[in-house]
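On clarity, I found the account of how folds are encoded harder to follow than it need be. What matters is that the chain and its backbone geometry are given together, residue for residue. I therefore recommend that a typical entry be quoted early in the introduction. An entry of this sort, consisting of the sequence and the corresponding backbone structure tokens, reads as follows:
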Amino acid sequence: MITPPEGNFMLRHIGLSVIALTLASPALAQSIPTMVETPGGRQLVVDGKPYLFMGGELHNSSASSPEYMKPVWNKLAAMNVRSVIGTASWSEIEPREGKFDFTSVDAQIAEARARKMRIALIWFGAFKNAASTYAPGWVRADDKRFPRAMVQGKGKVAFSYAGAMPKPVLSVFGPELVEADRRAFVALMRHLAEVDRDHTVIMIQIENETGLLRDSRDRSAVAQAAWNRPVAPALTAYLAREKAHLRPELAALWKRQGEPRSGTWSQVFGTDWQADEIFMAWGFSSYIEALAKAGKAIHKLPVYANAWLGPQPGQTEAGQYPSGGPVGRVIDVWHAGAPSLDMLSPDVYVPDVKDAFANYHRSDNPLFVPEAQFRTGSLFWALGQHRAIGFSVFGVEDGRVDGQYAQALSLLNPMHSVITAAQAQNRIGGVLLDEGQASTRLDLGGYSVVARDSRALFSSMFLDAGLNPPPPPPPMPSETEGGGIPTPGDSRSFALVIAEGQDTFLVAGKGVTFDFEQAGATIEFDHVEEGTFDADGRWVAGRAINGDERLAVLPHDRIGVTRIRLLHRR
């Protein structure tokens, strides 16, 4: 058995980190969830301890019916889900102006609390997926009070078809809209402060995938008036202050106009789709800031906004993806316009998650992935490479109880304190080997760690010996069940790598083997041991792995956890 490093590594090595002070203070155990700074970046703290929001987001309509959700909650518990993103819909909460009904919200809190789960709530207010279908009927029916956005109608309508009924799209520049949306959101936050004293709800998402489709900017009268006004001084001051750190796309747009400190939107940024996107980004970010600031004055939960990504294949210009949403190229505009937000978060359905995650992992923006496909390796990459505070698959109730993602949660949830400590102290790395990638290298714990795809390694060794390589693995079973599109399990090789100190590493994942190198030294495996963590976060030793079996430090066909101790030859 490998003995874990002596003493509390976290408290010995984290120095003056806020997180160490938080953990040492029992008085903070029931404090409101918050974000804290650590040497490794910001972390979410719940009940005085770092928290990883690992789980899934419900389908948009599921939580509208407590009866529909009753069997779903039990299934989520069986899938090892401890964190759920639910919904709070303006149309349900305020069906008549000034009359509020929180039945669906209260039901989600009660069911989650009974299973010791935590939830984030999406405020489906005036904007959801670049449309306004969740605004109440009394809002959508009054075009004079709540004007609609107007577009030139370029391109196809996303997720629609010829002959479909139009979706309502309200103008983000309507002054009465933001006031009505803000009042309803404040009512929700006040209700949570009253009924959720133990903080089952730990985060709030404000609106959903905001932006404008089919045009790069809103052409309505109220929007045109905003376009002709001077750029907000808060934005130009931010650009000047953060000039050396701006995204290159934004810096280039401003520079081509001579970096003016004042002027109308066209004078400061130009007249093409890129300038329009900045204008819309300011419109949406300042709209959401109005809600975030007012809501946090009532109930200071962490709040965030999420992004429909762009540009991406087939959506290369703003308007093809939602113009003005918090995409990477305008993330600085959003930071200037919505300083009350704790983070901006990507919904990741693109094949290349690595670039998408990297866009949102910044010193001023922790990575949280509120929507993603059932691809388990992406979870490991987010936690290890980008120190993510959480990862959530979309349509989590479709997942299989015996699926790969559920298995990952069963192993990682008991490790949450180990993972968060390693994140805070920069002792963690991620491995995600894409198709055809045989190996990668990372520097961690004073070693150069070479991570290799075990199956590719075996095939190479068999061929070198004049033998036929092992047959290819069978197709991965679907991660989902029911009427949706089947989603195969993740066939990529992936891992978390954690340096524990004293020449000891903890690795978790699938299909990866490791070699450790150090300049001027000869390194060998001293002891390799499978295991798991129990519900209290204690290591439970399994088999001691030796001989040829060390060529597969992590299993091929399932997710495993292994502790490695290294030996220096003298």
In short: The chain has a mean pLDDT of 92. The first helix runs from residue 9 to 13. The chain has 18 helices and 21 strands.
